[in-house]
Amino acid sequence: MIQLSENGVYLLNNREIVNEEEAGRLGLSETKETGRRGTMTYGIIKAHNTVENMENLKLKFDSMTSHDITYVGIIQTARASGMKEFPMPYVLTNCHNSLCAVGGTINEDDHMFALSAAKKYGGIYVPTNMAVIHSYNREMMAGCGKMILGSDSHTRYGALGTLAVGEGGGELAKQLVGRTYDIRYPEVILVYLKGKPGYGVGPQDVALSIIGKVFKNGYVKNKVMEFVGPGVDHLPVEYRNSIDVMTTETTCWSSIWTTDTKTRDYLAIHGRLHDYKQMKPDAVAYYDGCITVDLSLIECSIALPMHPSNVFTIRSLKENPQEILALAEMEANKSFEGQGVKLDLMSKIHKDGEIYVDQGIVAGCSGGTFDNLMAVADIVRGQSTGNGAFSLSIYPGSMPTYVELAKNGALVDMASAGAIIRESFCGPCFGAGDTPAHGELSIRHTTRNFPNREGSKPGEGQMAGVALMDARSIAATAVNGGKLTAASEISTDYHTPVYYFNKGVYEHRVLDASGKGDSREILQFGPNIKDWPEFPELSKDLLLKVVSFIEDDVTTTDELIPSGETSSYRSNPIRLAEFTLSRKDPGYVHRAKEISAIEQKRKKESVLSDEVTVVYQSFAEVTEVSPEDTVVGSTIFAVKPGDGSAREQAASCQRVLGASANIACEYATKRYRSNCINWGMVPFEIGNYSDISLGAWILVKDIREALESDGSEVTAYVLKEGQVKPTTLSFGYLTRDERSILLDGSLINYYKNSNK
């Protein structure tokens, strides 16, 4: 079904795969470097690289996009850094806090801030519930050969020939002040599609199957996935879009697909034929690895809680419900040890041996496409979703999609069957929409099923779970009253009518002031919109206390800063910081504040606390100490932090509370590591962490000198249970600018210093 190559491969004429060993016999190995330049990725990156060096890239993008959880912080950062106008088209969508249901006026205050910013700096403002961020960008911004940068991790428009990247807000702020996105040239992985999907198999089934194969082994981590092969020909563009947006869950850096007449037709329908060009690899292209996917062997699948990689075929789950659900339940509950709450999956197996779920949702950039919702309508037409506990909600991805579904009667078909038709809203993807009852299991065609992505609060005894499925199988389950059913098990006459894009929906409501900013416009601030606090520059040495210690295999950004109801406070750094690690380590904020208070007293009064005085006495026995040249900060240790969202608040909230570093065995994503750097937290890596524990003190020697001299590691001393032991902390790869940002203490400080 899905095979991974152990080494690099050559692709000949866009069809034939030749492995390294065979390439040597054919004499192709001499063309490896030429072949690297034969990928689609190379051509796009070269066109956007501002320097000749293709190893250490300095990229500028064609456009950017943010939503209403991220854009206030980005614009505030850019303003503080000297921004006078948006130097490129910048789309500001309102699809996360759009319900304005929590926090009084503060959500709509953010929207009015964005509208005024679009007028002042020249941006594109998409009002609430008009479109989810990625639907709008597919319809209006993506094009063949373009690059788009977004402050949402699912910024993926590869199926339209666009190399799109989801990053933390700091990277967007850099673009807004005329700087570049700096990265080493990524490895490129061939995703070779062959065959044709079977009956009832949808794009989420394909996506989940790939994620299940490559996430845990890191096969595509921080790399580009390049989709080619005869299988692409069998996939409609919206089918490709739904697969493509899920590549984020593999931890790849970006994705790109070959383009064809279907791509051209999609862009033409949206009035953008000029954005089409044929894209394919050269006759000889070299890839650093290969994922071969036989679409004909993909089955209807499900990702059980609590990760999109926890994938099983629905068939195998139904054949072995006791064994599989017991294992999934045990693995999920590891995340909630000590919180007095557990996820109960075994109760979903009823007396008849069947699995019953409580809720179905099809939504957002992955589920709410025209093709997916037409398939749902075909399945539920003339049927009933039942009048019991099970409920079905439908969220079209954009108002043009909604309008077309209304015109062709699909909305009537779904609503008549008992489905609730919602607005264009990302809430079900991050825990702010259709929150199920305690103990329930929701099946969703959305992007993630991390802990709390359904909106529950384990710390308050509330627990629910999400399993990811394709829209078709969700609809099949709905007409069976919640009994888990694969779309391949039922008989449906699928039809997808021609889609007519109504651009007037946007023309009559969206403000497009791109390139037409008016500096006389006044920014509209609400009472919850606050400036960033000041952050100290890096000191000669650094004294850290470990105030959270997390040994989970992976720590998501949702665990670092919860999504859902906290999103209302994204524009208020101080208030939002109170939620940091609240669902993973409720004691973190108090412990971090204690260290922050110690540092504030040291800085203002030159007085050390009794605890720190004793700590220095212990370190003085093995190394020279200089308290007057040392910032006292907090740090967290996590084995592999940062999987998931691009939200910079996962890092900035720690910094607001006085954090100076993160320590990890590795970072789950580049974007989280970049967020740490941009907020002035050193992204330390460590091999053996056995000497570190909660409450341990770490003295990092000569860190400023190491960063200034391009050093790759520093000596540190760990004080644990009265014993001091030396250790080594490494930085990983850092660009010159990233070193300067860390030295200055934050991206904002770096720009202030640059403008002096």
Automatic annotation (TrEMBL):
The keyword Electron transport does not apply. One of its GO terms (biological process) is tricarboxylic acid cycle. GO terms for molecular function: 4 iron, 4 sulfur cluster binding; aconitate hydratase activity; metal ion binding. This is Aconitate hydratase. The keyword DNA-binding does not apply. PANTHER family: ACONITATE HYDRATASE B (PTHR43160), ACONITATE HYDRATASE, MITOCHONDRIAL (PTHR43160:SF3). Keywords: Iron, Iron-sulfur, Metal-binding. InterPro entries: Acnase/IPM_dHydase_lsu_aba_1/3 (IPR015931), Acoase/IPM_deHydtase_lsu_aba (IPR001030), Aconitase/3IPM_dehydase_swvl (IPR015928), Aconitase/IPM_isomerase (IPR050926), Aconitase_4Fe-4S_dom (IPR036008). Residues 44-475 form the Aconitase/3-isopropylmalate dehydratase large subunit alpha/beta/alpha domain. Pfam families: Aconitase (PF00330). One of its GO terms (cellular component) is cytosol.
